[in-house]
Amino acid sequence: MSSDVRRERIETDVVVIGAGAAGLMCAIAAGARGRRVLVLDHANKVGKKILMSGGGRCNFTNTGTSPANYISANPHFCKSALARYTPSDFIAMVDAHRIAWHEKELGQLFCDESSKLIVRMLLDEAAAVDAQVRTHCTVERIERPGERHFRLRTTLGTVECESLVVATGGLSIPSMGATGFGYEIARQFGHAVLATRAGLVPLTLSGKPLERLQDLSGLSFEVEASCNGASFRNRLLVTHRGLSGPAILQISSYWQPGDALRLDLLPGRDALAWLQAQQRERAGTELRNVLADVLPRRFAQRLCEVWLPSRPMKQYGPSQLQQVATQLADWRITASGTEGYRTAEVTLGGVDTDGLSSSTMMSRQVPGLFFIGEVVDVTGWLGGYNFQWAWASGRAAGGAC
Ligand code: FDA
C-alpha cells in the first residue's frame, strides 16, 4: 500500500496550525461554540514553550497587564483582545483545575509545581469541547479553492476547513520547533510581515567592554537600564558573553544595533547627594570601598580600575564628584549584538496588524484566515505578558473562527 493511500481526508470547521499557547486557547474557545476543531502541530508534543517557560513553572500571566506592556507598530491593536480576556479570566481557569500558583514579584504569576499542569489543563479543556489535537503533522501546502474554504495538504492527508487559524509562534528557540511558517502563510495570502528580530534576549559585548567584564561572569546587581525611551529597573547579570538578567532582557527588546545602553548603577538614589554624604561621613575611605557597599565588590573594584578614578573620598573636588556621579547614574556601554533566536524568549515584529481585525484577529482581505499569538506583531515584556497575549488573542479568534 502506498503512503498516499493511507493518507486521510478530513473535513472540519476550523483548523488551527500550532498547538502552543495561543492555538490551544483558540481551539478551546472555538470548540465551546460547537465548532469542529482540528489542531495540527509538526512537533512531537504540544506546548513545548509552555513546558520550558518560567524555569519549568510557567509565568502564565501578569496581574498588571496593560497595553503599555506590549511593543507593536500599532500600540492600540492589542487593546480590544486584552480587555476581553483578562488575567483574572485565565486565573479562573487555572483555579478551576486546582493548579496552585503564587506571585513571584511585579504581578508575575507562576505555578507552584510545574508548567506541565498548564499544558494538561489546556489539553483537558480542548478534549472537553471535542477539539482534536494531532502532533507530528507537517503542513505542506495551503490552497484556497473558494471563499471560506481552505484545503491543506499535510502529512496526515488532505484537510478541508472553513476557517484557518495560524498560531505557529515566533522564531525563538528553533530547537523547540519554532519555524517561520506563519510568516510564509501570511505572505502567501498577501499580508505584510514586519521585520523580525530577537527580543527578551541577552546582549553580547565584544572588544574592550567584553575583556573588561568577562571574568566577572556570574555577578548580578540591580540597575535601571534605558534605551530608546524605555527604562527597566531590575537585575543585571554579567555573563561570559556580555550582559543578561531581567533588566537587560527587557531593554533588549528596545535596543537596536549600534545603540548605547544607559545603566543607572545606583537606581533609586540621587548619585551626587549619596556621594556627597559618603564624602562627609567617610572622608578617608576610597571610592571603590564606598561603592562596594552598594555594588558587588569585584564590580566596584573594576569600575574604579577602568572607568572611574579611585582615591579617598576627601580628595574629590566638587566637579570631580559630579563627574563620578554622572558616570554612576548614566554608565554607557555599547552592546555588539544579541545572542539571537537561539536563546531569545520572543520574536519582535511579525504579521502586520494593519491587515487584521483587532477584535477577531481575522484577516481583513481573506475572510476565514486568522493570525494569533506571537506570530503577530505584538510582543510583550518579560513577566507573563506574552502568555497573556497568547491567551487573549487565541480567545478573540476562537470566538469568531
Ligand atoms: P508557541 O511558540 O507557544 O506555539 C507555536 C506552536 O506552533 C508550537 O507548538 C510549534 O511546534 C508549532 N509550529 C511551529 N511551526 C509549525 C509548522 N510549520 N507546522 C506546524 N506547527 C508548527 N512568556 C510568558 O508569558 N511567560 C514565561 O514564563 C515565558 N517563558 C519563556 C521561556 C522561554 C525559554 C521561551 C523561549 C519563551 C518564553 N515565553 C514566556 C514566551 C512564550 O513562550 C511565547 O510568547 C508563547 O509561547 C507564544 O505562544 P504561541 O502560541 O504564539 O506560540
TrEMBL record:
<dbReference type="InterPro" id="IPR057661">
    <property type="entry name" value="RsdA/BaiN/AoA(So)_Rossmann"/>
</dbReference>
<keyword id="KW-0274">FAD</keyword>
<dbReference type="Pfam" id="PF03486">
    <property type="entry name" value="HI0933_like"/>
</dbReference>
<dbReference type="Pfam" id="PF22780">
    <property type="entry name" value="HI0933_like_1st"/>
</dbReference>
<dbReference type="InterPro" id="IPR004792">
    <property type="entry name" value="BaiN-like"/>
</dbReference>
<keyword id="KW-1133">Transmembrane helix</keyword>
<protein>
    <submittedName>
        <fullName>NAD(P)/FAD-dependent oxidoreductase</fullName>
        <ecNumber>1.14.13.-</ecNumber>
    </submittedName>
</protein>
<keyword id="KW-0560">Oxidoreductase</keyword>
<keyword id="KW-0472">Membrane</keyword>
<feature type="transmembrane region" description="Helical">
    <location>
        <begin position="12"/>
        <end position="32"/>
    </location>
</feature>
<feature type="domain" description="RsdA/BaiN/AoA(So)-like Rossmann fold-like">
    <location>
        <begin position="13"/>
        <end position="398"/>
    </location>
</feature>
<dbReference type="GO" id="GO:0016491">
    <property type="term" value="F:oxidoreductase activity"/>
</dbReference>
<feature type="domain" description="RsdA/BaiN/AoA(So)-like insert">
    <location>
        <begin position="197"/>
        <end position="346"/>
    </location>
</feature>
<dbReference type="InterPro" id="IPR055178">
    <property type="entry name" value="RsdA/BaiN/AoA(So)-like_dom"/>
</dbReference>
<dbReference type="InterPro" id="IPR036188">
    <property type="entry name" value="FAD/NAD-bd_sf"/>
</dbReference>
<keyword id="KW-0812">Transmembrane</keyword>
<dbReference type="InterPro" id="IPR023166">
    <property type="entry name" value="BaiN-like_dom_sf"/>
</dbReference>
<keyword id="KW-0285">Flavoprotein</keyword>
